[in-house]
Amino acid sequence: MPQRKQRLEKQDPPSVVTMNGYLDELDITVVEEGFTTKDLLEGLLKEASQSGSQEAFFVADLGDVVKKHLRLLKALPRVKPFYAVKCNRSKGVVQMLASLGVGFGCTSKPELALVKSVGVSVDRIICTGPCKQMSQIRYAASQGVQLMTFDNEVELGKVARSHPTARMILSLATDESKSPGCPSVTFGATLKSCRHLLETAKDMNMEVVGVSFHIGRGFTDTQIFTQSIADARLVFEMGAELGYKMRLLDIGGGFPGAKEAKGCFEETTTVVNSALDLYFPEGCGVEIIAELGRYYVDLAFTFVVNIVGKKEVPLDQPGSDDEEPGGKKSFVYHLNDGVYGSFSSVIFNNTCPVPVLHKKLSPDPPLYNSSLWGPTGDNLDRIAEGMELPELHVGDWLIFETMGAYTGPASSSLSGEQPARIYYAMSRVAWEAVQLLQGKLLLPEEEDQESTCAPLSCGWEITETLCVTPVFAPASIM
Ligand SMILES: Cc1ncc(COP(=O)(O)O)c(C=O)c1O
C-alpha cells in the first residue's frame, strides 16, 4: 500500500497524505502531536488573508470520526455500525467510514451513487428512506442493493413491483412522547399494524428479513431503547409465526455526538446493551446494526465564515435605564453563508450556532447586541440573534464548532452557491489506527480470531491513545 506521508512538526507547513483503497484521492493533512486542527485552521486563515480570499470553508477532523468509531465498537460490542449518509454527505466522511468497515444507510439515489463510487460492496448498503422514489428503487435493484426498509403497504407494493427480490426490513414507530425528533406519523409502523404488514408482504411474496426503529434526536428517556427493542422482539415473533426467518435488527440512530453529550452516550449504550442481552441474547442468530449520523460527524466539523456586510441599527429600548444619548448601538452582520447553505440546521434542527471570534480583541471590549444573517437578504435567513458581541468588521472571520451534522456538507446549497470547501485533517495517531484497522480488514482470515486474538504489536498503544481497546473488522452482515 504505497503512501505519501511526511513527518509534520509544529513549525512545518501541514503535510498532505493520500491514502489508498477507500481513501483513494482523499487529501488529508496529518497533524503531529502538539499540532492541532486549530493550528491548521490558523494556517488556512493566514493563507486566506495573504491571497485575499474570503470564501467560507470547513475543517473536518477525520480523527474524531475514527475515535468515535472505536468508542462505539467498545461501547456497543454486539452492534455493527452503519452510517446515515443524509447526515453529512461529504466524500471524506464516507471514504473514511468505508475504510473502517462501516455500512451505509442511503435515502436517495445520489447517496447510493456516492457510497457505490467509493467502492462499498452492496451487502453493506441499506436503502432506508421511508418513501423511496421508484427510480431509486430501480437504481438500487440495478446495483444489486437488496436491503430496503418499509413501514406501510404502499411502500411495500412499490418495492414488490420494482425490486421483487429485495430483502425487506420493517420499520417500527417509537414512542413519540419520548422521541420528539422522530414523529411516528412520518416514520415507522405501529406495533398494531405490523402483523397485517407482514401478512401483506407474504401475499406479495416479499421476503422480510428484519426490523428497524429510529429514536430521533433529543430523546428524553433512554428507556425508550428498551421499549423499542422489546417491541422489535414481538415483531420477530409475529414474523416467525408467519414463517419468516428474520435475522436483522437495526436500532437506528439518535446517539449524540457533541462533547458535552458523552455522559448521555454512555448511559444510552448501557441501556441498549442490557435490552439487547434480554430480548436478543447472544447466539440468538440475529445480527444487530445501528445507523448513526450525528454521533460520527457532529463534533468533527468546524465551519469558518466571513463577515461580508455590517449595519449599525439603534437598539429600540425606549425608557430603558441604560438608554444612551442617541440610542444604544446594535449591529446586524451578514455572513457569506446562511440557512440556505451551511447553516441549514438552524431551520431543520432548531440549532443556535454560537461563533468563536477569530481576531484578537482588547481585554473587556464593549459588547453590543448583535445578530448574524446569511447573504440572501431573505428574512428567514437568520442564523442567530440576541448575542452580545464586541464590534466586528467586514472581513472578520467567525468560527463555528460542532457543525458536522445536517449542515452544509449534508446537502448542496439551496442558495445556488457552491458548497463550502472542506479541508480534511487528522492526527497521526488516528491515521495510524486507520492503517492498523485497514490491515485487519484486508486480512479476512484473521476475523475468525476475533475473540482470542492477541493485541497487535502496536495496536494497544495507538488505540490506548484513542481511549479504546483494539477493535477488529466486523463480519459481513449477511
Ligand atoms: C431512519 C433513520 N436512521 C438513522 C438516522 C440518523 O440519526 P442521527 O443522525 O440522529 O444518528 C436517521 C436520521 O434522521 C433516520 O431517519
TrEMBL record:
Protein name stated in the entry:
Antizyme inhibitor 2
Gene name? Answer: AZIN2
